[in-house]
Amino acid sequence: MYTVGKSEQVDEQIAALPATALAAFQEVVLFLQVAPWNGHPFMRERPDSPMRTRTFGEGGSGMVTYLIIEYRRLVEIIHLVWHE
Predict the structure, then answer these.
(1) The 62-69 sheet, strands edge to edge
(2) Rounded to whole angstroms, how far apart are CA atoms 82 and 64?
(3) What is the DSSP pairing of strand 62-69 with strand 74-82?
C-alpha cells in the first residue's frame, strides 16, 4: 500500500468540495493507496511518468493530480479541482 500525502493548499481544496463530492473523493484516496499507477499520465507523451491524474465523482466532475514517489511508496496529491 501507498501512503497518501497532501499539502495545506490541497486541504483547502478538499474543504471547498461540496458535501456530495466527499464520498467520491474518499474513493479516490483509497484508489491512490492501492493502485496509483492505474491513473492517467499527466502528459500523454510520457506514459511512464509518475505524475498522474484521476477523475472522480458523477460524470468525472472532480480531478486529482498527483505524484508517485515509488521508492517511498508515497503518493502526493498536488492539486484537486471540482466542476459542477
Answers:
(1) 3-6, 74-82, 62-69, 51-56, 40-41
(2) 9
(3) antiparallel
End-to-end Cα separation, the chain, in angstroms? 32
Domain ranges of the chain: 3-82
3-class secondary structure, 45: coil
Per residue in 14-70, pLDDT (tens digit) is 999 999 999 999 999 999 999 999 999 999 999 999 999 999 998 899 999 999 999
Measure the CA–CA gap between 19 and 43, rounded to whole angstroms: 31
Residue 30: all three cell numbers together = 483509497
CATH number assigned to the domain covering 3-82: 3.30.2310.20
Does the predicted TM-score (pTM) go above 0.90? Answer: yes
